[in-house]
Amino acid sequence: MDTFLQQLVNGLTTGSVYAVVALGYTMVYGIIQLINFAHGEVVMIGAMVAFTVINLLAGGGMPPLMVVLIGTACAIPVCMIVGYAMERLAYRPLRRAPRLAPLITAIGVSIILQHLAMLVWSRNVLAFPQILRTQTYALGGASISNVQVAIITTCVAMMAGLALLVYRTRLGTAMRATAQNPQVAGLMGIDINRVIAFTFLIGAALGAVAGVLYGTYYGVAQYTMGSILGLKAFSAAVLGGIGNIPGAMLGGVLLGIVEALGAGYIGDFTDLCAYDSLRGALGERCADGGHFILAGSNYQDVFAFLVLILVLVFRPSGLLGERVGDRA
Amino acid sequence: MNNSRIASTLLAAALGLAGCGDKSAPKPAAKSDAPAAAAAPAAAGIEIKIGHVGPLTGQIAHLGKDNENGARLAIEQANEAKIKIDGKDAKFTLVAEDDQADPKVGTTVAQKLVDAKVAGVVGHLNSGTSIPASPIYNQAGIPVISGSATNPKLTEQGFKTQFRVVGRDDQQGPAIANYLASNTKPKLVAVIDDATAYGEGLANEVEKSLKAAGVKVLPREKGTDKTTDWKAILTKLRGRNPDAVFYGGMDATGGPLLKQGKELGIKAVFSFGDGACTDEMNKLAGAAADGLLCSQAGIPPLASDKKFLDAYKKKYGVDPIIYSPFTYDSANLLIEAMKKANSADPAKYLPELQKISYTGATGPISFDEKGDRKDAEITIFTMKGGKLDPIAIIKGGKTIPYQEFVKK
């Protein structure tokens, strides 16, 4: 039970990071029906910028939390610039092009950003300075660290903030109007280009924070970290229903939990020696507490993509998405 | 466009990206000493090319560069010593190649060195790249000495040209396992590996020795050499309450593993093999690294010859990380064998290399019939206050406290 609870806590932590990154995918998709595959790279750049700043300030005697906050504060504008530039230079000229063109461009932008990051920060795995003292609290048998608490609360706060922005402000109304029908929104006096640019800026800012959280949580950053994280967040967005903001949040958290539980228990479930009927057949290999495990925890990364495939096969519109079909 | 069309486009795009994500980027032009080589031979001189291979890019580029530095130092010293071979002035040059720690690139680079007609090779750093590259060198008859590949298979293939100057995993595995069994006295140990030739090989050896010592071992858990999230595995292990955890893998993955283990409140003693027995661990895992037990094949760099340490520090401004004393010796062994045979022809100096008896920066070196170093040492370290502290040297099955070893 303790183990199960702990896996849930772990899943919830990574899941909330996935959720925030997934928001970046889903917002852009909701507005211009583009899967911005370069979003994972924006997250990576956020982590890298924060790494550089934190590294510079780490020895300076400032309180550690302050250093991390300054790092984040530097990462956000850099990512926003990257997000804006990406939209302005790569996607806007293609807005009227066939849908495949911007999609492939997104992959191109992703590769370019990754290699630019490689030139700036090298190929090495960068170790985040461990300046935050990790404290762990007991939570009914599971332990949760202050970093995990911070990640979950930050992510929840950002999601709440985004929901407020989208559903309660003029900009949000404009975003929703543009998502429904850009032409008509334009006729109503909404500057569509501005709204789309803002969407990218907000997504990039969220991504920057997610990158910093991810980096400080695992303590490492590398120029390739964005690709797998981005794909998982993309899977999360699809799981929740791409284009749907609450869907991305739900999808992210669910995916994190599926992954943690999957990796935690797959070994037990595929241990043939655990099944009485098979134990006899395997004979010696199971004798004396032996194990015969078909698929172990190294299949952790498979779960996200398994979920992606299952969703696309059985419910392409995702858990909460309904409008995808008639949109496209 | 209907739902299923969207679905298939998304899926195709995602899978396509997944494929790209893992691949390492195109490699930059490999550093080579071509200009130096071109300027070389004077009328009475001969130019002798020695290859070095290690990852100069990627997760363990820092270790690859350290290895290369060792070999380069040996070559430069040999040039300063104005060695004569076959009556001619020998001019040694280092052809340094990057194998990105990737077995596929490893074989390509090996072929490149063979085509460049190197007289001998120092490397590769990883077992995973050394093993597939070894038949290529063997076919060309070029002697290879690895200063860091510890997988037993490397010298078990019956290649006369393959040597190594470090201990093997089946020496290192038992060494760390026995040290763990006799000093920590665990009842239950969890063994994790990163599913690479090195990590899995070492973990197998450790498991075998632990079981032989009567210690119970949990079913193997596996990550990959890119895993950063170990929480699921560690949480599962925490439920089983092991007294010790062994991980076969490199520092870039071992650091997060250690950090997350401590965060989850796992009380077990963590122990790693040589790939994760670096000072880098302190940066990667922070305070969680304290108390780590780990082993290195060979003696600690700082216990190697003072003259080598001073020369290295003077030339590169830093201390050796792990294996540069061994690659330094490897290069020197090649040169020494050439001197003895009075020839840089691999066919002529190979017999000399097989029966060599040489005292290098890491102590006396001679090879057994497989090409393994006789009586190779294994060192056990513990992480203390952010620094790796050698505590014992294991040689020929005997455990010698480090202080005693240094006195000798």
Write a structural description.
The complex is a heterodimer of chains A (328) and B (408). Chain A has 328 residues and is mainly alpha-helical. Chain A contains 13 helices and 4 strands. Chain A has a single domain (2-327), classed as ABC transporter involved in vitamin B12 uptake, BtuC (Orthogonal Bundle). Chain A has helices at 2-32, 39-57, 64-91, 100-121, 146-168, 170-180, 182-187, 192-218, 225-240, 245-269, 276-282, 302-314, 324-327; strands spanning 126-127, 136-139, 142-145, 220-221. In chain A, the strands form 2 sheets. A two-stranded antiparallel sheet of chain A has the order 1-4. In chain A, strands 2-3 form a two-stranded antiparallel ribbon. Chain A starts with a helix and ends with a helix. By secondary structure, chain B is of the alpha/beta class. Chain B folds into 2 domains: 34-166 and 303-374, Response regulator (Rossmann fold), CATH 3.40.50; 170-297 and 378-407, Rossmann fold (3-Layer(aba) Sandwich). In chain B, strands 7, 8, 9, 10, 11, 12, 15, 16 and 17 form a 9-stranded mixed β-sheet that branches. In chain B, strand 2 (84-85) and strand 3 form a beta hairpin. In chain B, helix 4 runs parallel beside helix 5. The longest helix of chain B has 20 residues, at 3-22. Mean pLDDT of chain B is 86; it is low at 18-42. The chains are: A mainly alpha (328), B alpha/beta (408). Chains A and B meet through helix 1, helix 4, helix 9, helix 10 and helix 12 of A and helix 1, strand 9, helix 8, helix 9 and helix 10 of B.
Which helices and strands appear, and what pairs or packs with what?
The complex is a heterodimer of chains A (328) and B (408).
Chain A: H1 2-32, H2 39-57, H3 64-91, H4 100-121, E1 126-127, E2 136-139, E3 142-145, H5 146-168, H6 170-180, H7 182-187, H8 192-218, E4 220-221, H9 225-240, H10 245-269, H11 276-282, H12 302-314, H13 324-327
Antiparallel strand pairs in A: 1-4, 2-3
Helix pairs in contact in A: 1-5, 1-8, 1-9, 1-10, 2-3, 2-4, 2-8, 2-9, 3-8, 5-6, 5-8, 6-8, 9-10, 9-12, 10-12
Chain B: H1 3-22, H2 34-38, E1 45-54, H3 61-80, E2 84-85, E3 88-98, H4 103-115, E4 120-123, H5 127-140, E5 144-146, E6 162-164, H6 169-184, E7 188-193, H7 197-212, E8 216-217, E9 221-222, H8 231-240, E10 244-248, H9 251-263, E11 269-272, H10 280-285, E12 293-297, H11 306-316, H12 324-341, H13 346-354, E13 358-360, E14 363-365, E15 377-384, E16 387-395, E17 398-401, H14 402-407
Parallel strand pairs in B: 1-3, 1-4, 4-5, 5-6, 7-8, 7-9, 7-10, 10-11, 11-12
Antiparallel strand pairs in B: 2-3, 12-15, 13-14, 15-16, 16-17
